[in-house]
Design brief:
about 30% helix, about 350 residues, alpha+beta, homodimer, six-stranded mixed sheet
Chain lengths: ~350, ~350
């Protein structure tokens, strides 16, 4: 099987191309998004609402236009290769469901149901059962129906012991309760909720950096469960007026938070306000990942952000003890970047 | 890359294991379904309706319990390997969307929106754009929003030029309009709508039977588009009382039609009533597929079935000229098979 990153830790390319050398092409991803935008521009269903930062799509409910269905499809990436190598299949289901729950939570939606897609090279009923049991448990934890799924055995496309896992969530929201990000303003605080490990992003880099013979030693960190932020967010919303939210997935803090800001605002992050988890700090060190790329490739210890007034930030921290103020919003002049990350506190 | 079926046409296993030798393990699939059933039995969301033959799941709409959302996830199987080998990417999107439309049509649902999942070894924006354009066109043909999607680049899991494509559809139905299959009775007619090629099933067998150097010659047949039966079914419903429907996917006529029959009924198919398409007949011959396995592995030329009274069958055929009566319903005694296929007409 072609493994474009297999030789990488031994023959290091220039720093700037580090992540690309692990086999993930960010430029190609941007080009694909451009093409999708052109395709979507050709026709848009009248019931479709403008998305917020493309975390999820929203569709007005036929016959009850004050409500919208909110849906998102995602996968767990090459985390499955580590799960397969370590034969630990129980946690990827929660990774998948929680990722999707967080995506529609950005639009304030409550999950209704979920469907999974499991693709394997050779079907082993015990392994498939373990994976789907994990999906089912995570659905149940959110009072969400596991409404269906597909298991596909595809010899020739997957190696016998490999698998891919993706899923789709559908939730519901009152259209008036979808965050209006235009309310975000200079002086607002960015509240961060802690990540547990890499979640479901950066695994091509991790696999290229950590040799497979070390995976078992790092197993708990590599397979740490992508948490759901549902209950923390609801607890904060009970005490604070949340103006915008972001799920920190591929693209990191640097790309995801700006997706939910008005064009007149930028996000300032102060790295000194939270601690980068040891495993992520070690991965950054071993991969020589430059400062700018760190906050696009990895979550750097923050899994979800909420933007609130500074007065409400104190209430949010009281409601959810693990929450931290990780930065604030400033006015953005034309041409300025939408996110700035200070490695140490400067103010 | 491991290719369990590569040697198969040269060293033929016993007839009964033919499909299994192509790398798809029907027994493992049944075992996995058993495990999923056990998992699902542990908890069921109160809004979840009993499915019909597991083609799709249904979930009562919160706040309007006379309606239900109907959802299904599916993929296009290893048809993607043929599309990738022939570099013909435009049709797999329609295969995927139409497959999903047909699945929820079994519950009489009208599609609302769709989300796709595209996984690649190496992202090529032009190819991804072509695939997603096909998805978009097929959505538009059903007035269905392409609400979102995920494109994942996963080096190490997929070979550089390979891809997998899956998707999820969500539709809506009045709960009273979901077919009540208990109304099916002996004497009813089975109306079949013609398939175009293999649709999205039997590709592991096809790849094992037809050497890759012949794929280009068979390209149009191998990549024939999985049709949507939406308009044909609606046209038949305008003139006939449709009691049950089935989408003929993996498992063929033999497994899919019985999934929508009461336990007291069996389906009798008369092969003489329709013509097996030349390409499928040739595949059966070249693979030495035994009679019983043909109707489980391949669609044998029928893509969708509807059960109506014999009086209504004539109206259905008048409304949709390509429809055919392909069999009828008989009373089933305990222990009898739920489907019988007569290779030639016996009555």
């Amino acid at each position: 099987m072609s493994e474009p990153d297999a030789n990488w830790p031994r023959a290091k390319p220039p720093l700037r191309d580090r992540y690309s050398a692990s086999g993930v092409d960010i430029d190609a991803a941007h080009q694909a998004v451009e093409r999708y935008r052109d395709i979507a521009a050709g026709w848009r269903h009248p019931a479709q609402l403008e998305g917020i930062g493309a975390f999820a799509g929203a569709f007005r409910l036929p016959g009850d236009e004050r409500r919208a269905l909110v849906a998102s499809t995602d996968g767990v990436g090459t985390k499955t290769l580590i799960a397969a190598a370590l034969r630990r299949y129980r946690t990827v289901g929660a990774d998948l469901v929680n990722h999707c729950v967080n995506d529609i939570l950005v639009l304030n939606a409550t999950p209704l149901f979920f469907l999974d897609y499991l693709a394997v090279g050779k079907l082993d009923a015990a392994i498939a059962g373990e994976i789907v049991a994990g999906v089912n448990d995570a659905c149940r934890a959110h009072d969400t129906a596991l409404l269906g799924g597909e298991t596909a055995e595809m010899p020739g496309l997957y190696e016998a012991d490999h698998f891919d896992l993706a899923g789709t969530i559908v939730g519901i929201v009152d259209v008036d309760a979808i965050p209006n990000i235009e309310r975000v303003q200079a002086g607002d605080a960015i509240v961060g909720l802690p990540a547990h490990g890499l979640h479901t992003n950066g695994y091509s880099l991790a696999r290229a950096t950590i040799p497979q013979e070390e995976w078992a030693a790092y197993g708990d960190a590599l397979l740490a469960e992508h948490p759901s932020y549902y209950r923390s967010v609801r607890a904060i919303q009970d005490v604070a007026d949340v103006k915008a939210m972001a799920h920190i997935t591929g693209g990191g803090l640097a790309d995801n938070v700006p997706r939910t800001l008005p064009a007149t605002c930028k996000a300032i992050f102060e790295q000194s306000r939270w601690t980068v988890p040891l495993f992520i700090a070690d991965l950054v060190r071993r991969s020589d990942l430059p400062h700018d790329e760190r906050y696009r490739t990895l979550n750097m210890g923050i899994g979800f952000t909420l933007i609130v007034s500074t007065a409400d930030a104190m209430k949010a921290l009281a409601a959810v003890p693990e929450a931290k103020v990780i930065g604030w919003i400033e006015a953005r002049e034309p041409g300025e970047p939408a996110a700035v990350i200070h490695p140490v506190r400067t103010a």
